[in-house]
Amino acid sequence: MRYQEFLEHIYKRYSGNVKLGLERMEGLLMDLGNPQHQLTGFHVAGTNGKGSVCATLESLALAHGLKTGLNTSPHLVDYSERFRINGKQPEFELILKIFLEHEELFNKWEASFFEISTAIALILFVRNQVDCAIIEVGLGGRLDATNLFIPDVAAITNIGLDHVKTLGGSLELIAAEKAGMIKQNVPLVLGDMEKQPFKVISDKASLLNAPLSIWNRDYQATNLHNNIAGIMFDYHYQDYHFRGLQANLLGEHQATNLAMALTAFIIYANKHGIQVNEAAVRKGLSQINWQGRMQLLSKSPAIILDGAHNLHGVKALIRTLDLTFPDIKPRFLISILADKDFSAMLGLMASRAAHIYLAKNNSDRAATIEEQMAVLKDYPVAVSTYHSVAEAWDAAKAELKQEDLLVCGGSLFTVGELLAHLDSEKQP
Fold first, then answer.
1. pLDDT tens-place string over residues 111-123
2. Do both 349 and 256 map to the same domain?
3. Residue range(s) defining the domain that contains residue 231
4. Are residues 233 and 104 in the same domain?
5. Which of 9, 43, 44, 402 is most solvent-facing, going by the fewest CB within 10 Å?
6. Cα(259)–Cα(266) distance, rounded to whole angstroms?
7. Which tens digits make up the pLDDT trace of 171-227?
8. Cα–Cα nearest to 200, from 216, 179, 225, 231
9. Are 154 and 187 in contact (CB under 8 A)?
10. Do 25 and 122 have their domain in common?
11. Model pTM?
């Protein structure tokens, strides 16, 4: 079975198996020998930033000499991106081998695409004898397939209105779903969030005797400096004080994610008798590998790839652009999903844009050109439309001057398509 055949098979065969509840996953993992019980590490949830926290944890752990397993979703271009061992994607043949070995069990339990992907990650990590697993929640927390993993440290980045049909239409309901990943006596690191969701989560943590480390109470990132190369900040947590830390992630909003990850890593290190080394911390923060999130493709002209795919994320993106490029009106290459608040997202970008290159990505959830144009007609901005993300990219790139800024995104699907297009351009 080749890569494309494998993908078509698991998408077609298992994508319709989505059912809320952990019973099937529990049965599947039991038949697999409960690989999740053989792992230690981190479990990370949140509306935005959880991927950045996971990638930072991976980099910090690697810099301290630990063998890591990273499981994130979704992938942008290649299914193998969902899994990393020591910072590197495994060979596809290894993933396929695990799938074929256990296909009968996946069928027996009518496992979903995400449940299979989670099981593959757990098996992969056990077989590679990783020191710590870093596992990102797929959706919510309470009923997520990853929630049978009991970590050493958990983290919830923030709570915003996203996936409201599944998780609920209020911050409190969404917080309750994400709080479902909190485990008895497992330390929990909390990011920056509003009072209502914070209360829901902190109440659940108290009920489960989960020690809390709270942003701007227990740990801080201060003295922030942001530029096109990344962010610099001072970090404070208990007896740990690091000044002038530099990370290769763009945007002041990343300071919270970076500080969260460092706090979670310190808690983990202290539990396992690992000495937190300042030189290793600096090295780890400078080498974070996280594609498609404020990713700088070019400095002159400035081209940024960002997967902000909800209103909370777009607000953070706009703040970063205002701070980093205060004198430039950005050009946007955009395609947004119809089940997002695309009117508000488009409005935020259109009110600042010099030009919008509007496309429709290949997702069956993508908003049509007509739906997006119905919003943009109310803004005094030049808009050109294209049948594909690749076509929009080619047109935008042809018009760019050295002093321009182009921001590409609106959805992780858009980012993935663009990265695939760029990869194809490199092929001989």
1. 989 999 999 999 9
2. no
3. 3-286
4. yes
5. 402
6. 10
7. 888 899 999 999 999 999 999 999 999 999 999 999 999 999 999 999 999 999 988
8. 179
9. yes
10. yes
11. 0.92
